[in-house]
Amino acid sequence: MSGVDRNTPDPARGEIVEDAQGEPNVDCGPVREETELALYQRLHREHRLAVRVAMTWWLDVQRPEADLKREIQAAPYTTGVDHWLRFMSCKVNMDGGMTIGTAYQRQPYAGGFGGD
After folding, report:
1. Among 29, 21, 18, residue whose Cα is nearest residue 53
2. What one-character-per-residue DSSP string does 56-78 give?
């Protein structure tokens, strides 16, 4: 249906996961660009989505609160139930990440990071 087979190369920022028989099961990476979101929306309108898509809205909170509120209030997204294309969650990063040693922790990182 989607034209993806065992010989299809991985897409940008994505991975084609194969089952035990080597057949593809498409698992795409995160949608980060407005053009990618527009593509998903167009495919949905045209009834051409081959899989259900559950997206995460990733907000950049390292900016003025007023700007963040404006973006959220102006967003064209709704909480309506559409099982083919929907935002399932909202993600924010405030202080870094655990896997790269930049998140605030109550205890030192095991093995240390940076100057530890």
Report:
1. 29
2. EEEE--SS-HHHHHHHHHH----
Span 56-96, pLDDT tens digits: 888 877 788 899 889 888 887 766 668 888 888 777 776 66
- Asked if residue 46 is part of any domain, the answer here is yes
Q: Please name the residues in contact with 38: beta carbons below 8 A apart, sequence gap of 6 or more.
A: none
Residue 49 falls inside a structural domain: yes
Write down the pTM of the prediction: 0.50
The dihedral built from the CA positions of residue 68, 69, 71 and 76, taken in this order, carries a sign that is positive
The whole domain housing 82 covers 31-91
Look at the block and give the residue holding tokens 């530890």: 116
Q: Are the C-beta atoms of 15 and 47 separated by less than 8 Å? A: no
Q: Which two tokens stand for residue 14?
A: 């994505």
